[in-house]
Design brief:
Number of domains: 1
CATH architecture: Beta Barrel
CATH topology: Hypothetical Protein Pfu-838710-001
Helix content: 25-40%
Strand content: over 45%
Order of helices and strands: EHEHEEEHEEEHEH
Radius of gyration: 16 Å
Number of helices: 5
Length: about 170
């Protein structure tokens, strides 16, 4: 699956929730999860701009590889995801293949749907001001940024590593 998204930094959560309600976005859920990112000792996954992670939430475990396709007006990645039932065993398999943990984060997320292909999430990570991700096709993303009054905010096409690096400095 090809994922297209942008992140809009340092949002006002209250104003954004109000705007989401005004445009008819459907609240889906709030969730908390832990994500562990993996790479080979030589950093070959990150050097390509790709991401390999395992995510755990509500008893569900997902392994995801995101292969960067390009950065145009939105970030574009090819995403491959499988589910596992045993977090510890999945981590052991990855480590047995020579992968090592390079970062672990906890995230809180609110999910809203505009339509079957367009999702808006409000994310919170410790040490990072709240931000929003809009996923969908490029045209829909641009339209939503305008409708939500976000088109003049700090818009980035970063992955999680780039985001955390920005706020760490």
């Amino acid at each position: 699956m090809i994922e297209r998204e942008v992140k809009i930094l340092e949002i006002d959560e209250g104003k954004l929730r109000k705007k989401l309600e005004e445009i008819g976005a459907k609240f889906v859920e709030k969730k908390k999860f832990t994500t562990i990112f993996f790479d080979f000792p030589d950093g070959s996954i990150r050097k390509k701009g790709d991401i390999f992670r395992i995510r755990k939430f509500k008893g569900k475990i997902e392994l995801t590889y995101k292969k960067r396709k390009g950065v145009k007006s939105v970030k574009e990645v090819e995403e491959f995801t499988i589910e596992s039932v045993n977090f510890k065993e999945a981590v052991k398999i990855l480590e047995s293949l020579g992968l090592q943990e390079i970062m672990r984060i906890k995230k809180q997320r609110e999910i809203y749907k505009i339509n079957k292909d367009t999702v808006i999430v409000i994310d919170k990570i410790k040490g990072v001001p709240p931000y929003v991700e809009i996923e969908g096709n490029s045209r829909e993303i641009k339209k939503l940024m305008k409708e939500l009054g976000l088109e003049n905010k700090k818009i980035v096409k970063w992955d999680t590593f780039e985001l955390l690096e920005y706020y760490r400095d």
